[in-house]
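hey so i finaly got around to running the thing on TIM protein from Piprites chloris. pasting the sequence first so u can double check i didnt mess up the copy paste, my clipboard has been acting weird all day
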Amino acid sequence: MEENWAPEEGAGQGLARCLHQEGLAGPLRWLENCLRRAARDREEDGVSHPVPLVPLTEENEDAMEDRRFQTLLRQLGLRPPASEQESFWRIPASLTPQQLQCAAASIAHHGPDPSGSLQGLPKCPQDPGPGEGPGWGCGTPTSGYGLSAEQLPAEPGSDSESEELVPVPVPTPMQSGTKRRRELDSEDEDG
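ok and heres what it spat out for the 3d tokens, dont ask me to read them lol
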């Protein structure tokens, strides 16, 4: 069956470049981070299970409904909802961490980016680079840490590295700084 289909190296690069130029840079970064998160989780856990792509922002939700974006998802080996009981596209369990890293690298924007993308990665890295956050709302809402792009570049050795491991539910990136700040302030008062 098609479940065992694997993307070719570099799959989706051309379409991702077109989508980026047409204003879908944010959803592409979100998708890239979802793929990297799934790869990292599979490496750490040693277990693969399908991971739903849950768009938590209107921009990502709109992208998931765009036919060209859906074509990109298929090129990367992702699957649409299989039944009426599934609402979200999925990263299939059959994709290895290496395939997921390659898929993420193939959609990463490597050129100059006026929107401030942090990408410039090698073609198929085995490990995520420093400064990469845990993602922007991929998987179920409880598995996403809800970090905004503004919070990703942290100084090495700062407290933000240990704080990243504490999930703080955040409905929109605009509110994440405030909520995270309150979380940090309340922890400072406790100890």
